[in-house]
Specification:
With about 180 residues, this protein is α+β, with helices and mostly antiparallel strands. It contains 6 helices and 4 strands. A 4-stranded mixed β-sheet has the order 2-1-3-4, sandwiched between helices. Helix 4 crosses helix 6. The radius of gyration is 26 Å and the shape is elongated. The termini are far apart.
């Protein structure tokens, strides 16, 4: 009988230890998950990365896609009747992915600010801003669309060239507001 009474407390202790370890692991997992969600919302879109498409997540650390404008910000600039450029792109558009790295040096050379609106994330932007093709570069004057370039700088495309974009920026850059 003595062996039975000793084995019961040992089994009970083991069970308590296993349950305690399990509880600690569950708590640690919950903590790590919470920290992951906080860290993942620290991106240019302000939402957890888990809510973004794979293509958009790939652009989060890409220096070519850090000047993101959110819909509220764009709408505010339009409402304020600002004069500005906006580059509409989609992170799933191969033409956009080819154009953006070629366009950014032209933007820098022109000395203009061109916020980027990701239509993959904010798909209602297609209808709201009358976007048919990606990429599309739009110039708004006093909050109203004045001009646009549809299509990008794609190898084999002679419609839009570097000169097309340089001339576009040169034509309107002195009219832009900060």
């Amino acid at each position: 009988m003595k062996s039975r009474s000793r084995s019961k407390p040992i089994i009970t202790r083991k069970l308590v230890i296993y349950l305690a370890v399990f509880a600690v692991l569950v708590a640690a997992l919950a903590f790590v998950n919470a920290q992951s969600n906080v860290a993942s919302s620290d991106n240019v879109y302000g939402v957890p990365a888990s809510q973004l498409s794979d293509a958009t997540r790939k652009t989060l650390d890409d220096p070519n896609y850090q000047n993101i404008v959110l819909p509220e910000q764009l709408d505010q600039r339009i409402a304020n009747k600002d004069s500005f450029f906006v580059y509409f792109f989609s992170s799933t558009c191969p033409y956009c992915m080819e154009t953006t790295p070629k366009l950014n040096p032209i933007i820098a050379e022109a000395g203009v600010d061109v916020p980027q609106f990701n239509l993959e994330v904010y798909q209602d932007g297609f209808s709201k801003y009358n976007i048919v093709y990606t990429p599309t570069l739009v110039y708004y004057e006093d909050g109203v669309e004045k001009d646009r370039i549809e299509g990008g700088l794609v190898d084999g495309n002679d419609i839009n060239t570097e000169k097309t974009f340089k001339d576009f920026f040169e034509k309107y850059k002195d009219k832009t507001t900060s």
